[in-house]
Amino acid sequence: MSEKVNKIVTDRIIELLEQGEIPWQSPWGSSSGRPKNGATGKYYRGINALICGVSGFGDSNWYTLNQLKKLNLELKENQKYTPIVFWNWVEKYGGAGRIPFTRYYRCFNRQQVKGAEDLWPVADTKPNEDWEQDASTILQNYQINGGPRVDHGSSSARYIPSKDRIEVPDRAAHTSAAEYWSTLFHEVTHSTGHKRRLNRTEGMDGVFGDHDYSKEELTAEMGACFLLADLGVEKHIKNSAAYIQSWLKKLKEDRKFLIQAAQQAEKSCDYIKGVSYVG
Predict the structure, then answer these.
(1) Quick check: pTM over 0.70?
(2) What is the DSSP letter of 79?
(3) Are 116 and 110 within 8 A, CB to CB?
(4) pLDDT tens figures, 22-62
(5) Cα 253 to Cα 222, 223, 245, distances in angstroms
(6) H runs (alpha helix) in 163-254
């Protein structure tokens, strides 16, 4: 692989690793399948499968700009490409053997296509739970009162403070309705730390694995637990306990840390629901 191509691919992988992916099973599946070229149906292998798989998209189909043009498809505004590496053997000048030749193509995921949600709708076969309407009302009221925008269709979940935006996988991609709302409420709790809301500056600026980052993660996960508990949903608590335990390994037996995170979580839930308690 040439130095230029190697740098592009390596930099992209490092960027993703620095975001701090949690190393356990996500509550959403991998039903989209192995990454492939959407026009030819050919599956990607090696580094291409890896870089597409961790790109943040929930769809397995990828296209070059030329392929999109031939299919009369347009990209949404301000879309970043993903490098797909092509390599082959070429003859040296004068026929003195062969050398590897590499180049990369700028490719885009199907979810980056304008109108993708209507062109390729995702089927959701899970039944609606009775409590989900109340969960939706909590989120809608929070957004009406200045909460963040929520975008679906990602292959991972995150809150982006600089854009005040939440990205989550579709409900259909989750293993259950409870896990979907747990994931969403986790990111919603993160969003209360924005400087325009409860201003948890340290947590918003924390580096993956450090003390402030760990506290913010605990706050968000507890917030998701509390919000679901208020709705009478207990299924998520076991999963949350495992999540919290893994982060507690970094806390050096600091019991005060857990209490402070719980207090911040309660305050976040009150903010989300638009309630306050005195005393």
Answers:
(1) no
(2) P
(3) yes
(4) 433 455 555 566 789 999 999 887 778 777 877 778 788 99
(5) 18, 21, 11
(6) 177-191, 201-205, 211-230, 237-248
**Whole-number Å distance between alpha carbons of 2 and 55:** 22
Of 127, 135, 122, the residue nearest 170 (C-alpha) = 122
Strands (E), 122-181: 149-152, 158-160, 165-168
The H or E element spanning position 7 is: helix 3-17
Give residue-wise pLDDT tens across range 56-77.
Answer: 787 889 999 999 999 999 999 9
The Cα-based distances of 96 to 80, 87, 92, 93 in angstroms read 40, 19, 6, 7
pLDDT 10s digits, 248-268: 555 555 656 666 787 888 899
Residue 37 DSSP SS3: strand
